[in-house]
Amino acid sequence: MSILEVNRISKRFGGLQAVSELSFDVDRGEVLGLIGPNGSGKSTTLSLLMGVVRPDRGTVRLGGRDVAGWRTHRIARHGMAMVFQHSRPLPRQTVLENIQLALLPDTVFQLVLPKATEHRAREIAARVGLGALIDRRPPSLAYADVRRLEIAKAIAQDPAVLLLDEPFAGLAPQEMREFSELVKSLSQEDRAIILVDHNVKEVAGLVDRIVAMHAGEQIAVGTPEEVTRDEKVREVYFGKSLEQEAGVGGRVAKSGEGAKRLLDIKLHSVKYGLAEAIRDVSLHVNDGECVAAVGINGAGKSTLFKAVMGFVGYEGEIDWMGESIRGEEPGDIASSGIALCPESRELFGYMSVYENLELGGHALNPGDFRAQIEEVFELFPPLKERRKQSAVTLSGGEQQMLTIGRALMQRPRLLMLDEPTLGLAPLVIEHISEALEKLQKERGLAILIGEQNLTFALRHAERIYLIETGHMRWEGKAENFVAEVGEDVL
Predict the structure, then answer these.
(1) Residue 119 contacts by C-beta under 8 Å, 6 or more apart in sequence?
(2) What gap in Å lies between CA 14 and CA 38, rounded to an integer?
(3) 226 and 272 together in one domain
(4) Which of 184, 211, 238 is the last residue of a domain?
C-alpha cells in the first residue's frame, strides 16, 4: 500500500474550480513531481494535502487513514510536513534555535527542551548543509540557506511524506543542483516526497514520476520522459507550435534603423536582502514596439517591472525617453507615461468597475476621461455590461480586463503586462490578444510583456528576451527564437 493515496480530491473557490477530481499516489522512497503552468492548481493541491485548505470532496489516505479535512497540526503529527514557497523562519532566533523549536513536542505539557534536542538539531543542520551556520540568524543568511533552514525545520518532524512547494524558485544553477542532491538523499531515507516547481527541466531530472496539471485537472501521469513528450502537456505549455506563433504576421515592426528608444534598462543587480533576483539584465523597448521578457516563475520578470516602476532599489540605470528615472517615486514614473498591470492585479475589490476605471483616469480632464473610458469599453465590452458590479464579483478573465483597462485610463506611452494570461481560459486570452493588437496598430502603444506563456509572447512580440534565474540567456527577434532556442525552455 502506498504511503499516500489521493482519490478524486476537489476544491472550488467561488467560481474558480481550483482542483478537480485529482487522484494519484506516492510510495516511500519515491519522488513525485507536480507540474503545470501558473494557475493549474499545484500549490492548492499541496495545501489540500496539508490541511491548510479543506477539500470539498475526495479522500487523502496517509498511512491508510483518511486525513482529508483534518487540521494541519493533526496531519503533521500523523506524518506529513510541508516546506512552503515563502520562507518564514523566526528572525530573532539562530539557525540552531529555529530547528530546536521544530523539535519541540506538540504538547503544552513540555515547554522545556530535552537535553538531547540540541544534539539532534545540530545533526539536522549538518544534514542540510547548515552545520557551519548554526549561530547565525535568518536575516544574515543567503537566500539558499534560508530555504535549507525551512527544509531542516520540516525534517525535524521526521515526516513520512514531505511536501516541497517551489523549492528551486530563485536559486542559482549550482544551488539548484545542490538542492536536487539534498532532495534525492531525503528520499533515500524512506520518505515520500512530492514537489511542485515551474522548472520542468530540473523536476524531470529529479523525480521518479510526474503528474501534469492544467486548470485544476490531471492531464498526464508517468515517467518524466513520458510526460514531457505528452501531446496534451506540450499543448498546455505551448498551445500551437512555436513555429506557427513565431510566424504570426500581426506584429508592428519598430526595432529597425531610426526607431525611437523609449525604455532602456541596464540592471547590474537587484536584491531582496541577500537574495539576488536579477544580475546583468539589459533590454530596451522602442516607441510603438511590443517586446516580451519570457521565463519560468522566479526567473526575475516581476522584479524587472518593479525596478522600472521604482518599487525596488537596484544597481544600474533605467532611462525613460532618454532621461534617467533612477530614484524617482512610483507615482511620478506612472505620470510620465508608464503603466503597469501587476501579476496580482491589485484591484479595489469592493469598488465598482466604473470606480476602478475612474481611479485610473483621475488625472484626465472630463472630455478626455469620457473618450478614454469609451475606448476601454470598446476594447472590453464585458466591462461596460458590468460597470456597476464590484470588482471582486468579476470572473478572473474580467478582472484581468479591468486591470488592463485601468492602466489604459492613464493614457500611457508604454504598457507593461506582468503575466497577463495567468489562470485565464483560452477564449479570454484570445480576447486580450485581439485588444493588444488593436492598441498597437491603431494607437501605436509600446508594450512590454512578462510571460511564461511562450505562444502568447511570440504572437505579439517583435523581440524576445529569455530570462533564467535572474540573468539573460537569449535575446533576439521572435522569428529566430525557435531555431536558436526551440522548446528547450519546457
Answers:
(1) none
(2) 19
(3) no
(4) 238
Q: Give the number of C-alpha atoms closer than 13 A to the C-alpha of residue 288, restricted to the C-beta side.
A: 14
Judged by DSSP in three states, 165 sits in: strand
For residue 222, give the amino acid letter: G
Q: Which domain holds residue 456?
A: 242-337+412-484
Distance from C-alpha of 170 to C-alpha of 188, rounded to nearest angstrom: 26
Closest CA relative to residue 443, chosen from 258, 252, 245, 248: 252
Largest Cα span, the chain: 76
Grouping H, G, I as helix, E, B as strand and the rest as coil, residue 442 is helix
* pTM, 2 dp: 0.66
Contact yes or no for 296/335 (Cβ under 8 A): no
- Segment 48-106, tens digit of pLDDT: 999 999 999 999 999 999 999 999 999 999 999 999 888 889 999 999 999 998 888 76
In DSSP notation, 218-244 reads EEEEE-HHHHHT-HHHHHHHHSS-HHH
Phi, psi of 337 (to 5 degrees): 125, 10
Name the region of 346 (left: φ>0; alpha: ψ -120 to 50; beta: rest): left
Cβ(42)–Cβ(218) below 8 Å: no
Q: How many CA atoms lie within 13 A of 175 on its CB side?
A: 16
Cα dihedral sign, 271-277-278-284: negative
The answer to whether position 378 is within a domain reads no
